[in-house]
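Technical annex B. To support the medicinal chemistry partners, we prepared a structural model of the target in complex with magnesium ion, based solely on the information shown next.
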Amino acid sequence: MRTILHIDLDAFYAAVEQRDDPKLRGKPVLVGGSIKRGVVASCSYEARVFGIKSAMPMAEAMRRCPQAIVVPVQMERYVEASQIFFAILGDFSPEVEGLSLDEAFLDCTGTERLLGEPETIARTIKQRVTAETQLVASVGVAPIKFAAKIASDIDKPDGLRIVTPENLLPFLHGLPVTRLWGVGEATRAALASMGLETIGQVARYPEQALVGKLGAITGHHLAALARGEDSRSVEAERDAVTIGHRETFEHDLDDKGELAITLLSQADRVAVRLRAAELRARTVTLYIKYDDFRQISRRTTLVQATSDGGVLARTAIELLAKVPIEARRGCRVRLCGISAENLEARDAPRQLGFDEARREKGERLGNALDRVTAKFGKGLIKRAVHLPDSDDEPGD
Ligand SMILES: [Mg+2]
């Protein structure tokens, strides 16, 4: 049995702003772009009371809470806090897997003699984060990643939840199925039509019947999670190998649609190189450099490693949606790029997941594109969105 911690800073950007400006403390604070066109990048707990969430349009957030205070994103400060945060985590284990600036998995298996019980480690991490960054971390501890992530979220803010191996199933079984990794609205509705609303009900349902209703991949996947089986290990990035593509624009861009089209073509190029190297990527990172040379990156780790340009593009465009971009100085984009990280060999054994059929189709299509490109040269084949007068929405 492993001991896995998931550590997540509470309302990260907003908390940094409240820390640095006492006038913001105790108030609904929205971090993000312009009130007219921007989205909420982060919001304080005082704002969440009004139903405001990250990625909500700023205009909608202001309708819900007109007295909210809007402050711009100050990425350098968040990066600075993040570096301290990760330095603290590194003191507890070499096995740190960063998921974003303020979120990480940590594997502490076998460190009890050195560092104490998991609860002691979790409390010490919380204390050090508060002492050294004046921010608050929520921590979940569990024998599997999937449960550790839920555990850190469930008592937020300032949460601490320990799920012991003996408590794993009772903990999971009381939760709604939407807590299962990968269950979106469609699968939730399908499960509801079978009378399954909690993870426990999924665990007790005959697996073959689940497979009959949801297909082999989803059925077996959900049954395994509901039994508390998640074999993913904490993967520290020791030798971060990446394949990426970036470009600097002649003119700064402030239109997400135009950027999305660029990402689509960059994703295709990255995918070609992945397939040529017989690799798949599990993590997609979006890089943005603003016209004032401020740089940010956003990353997502996929459920399934991929070499499909369509998946890479969709993921990058989803990340782009949460990035503030506007027509004013400091918020226009000078460079954007995408990189594929967390690479694995294409024939590496993989956990089965969702979208298997679509993934295979996307990769086969990619292989076919590569062959045609090799034969006839680049520029002949482009995704439909690159053609003039296309009705396709990038990112759909
Ligand atoms: Mg967080």
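Notes passed to the chemistry partners:
The chain is about 40% helix and 20% strand.
The radius of gyration is 22 Å.
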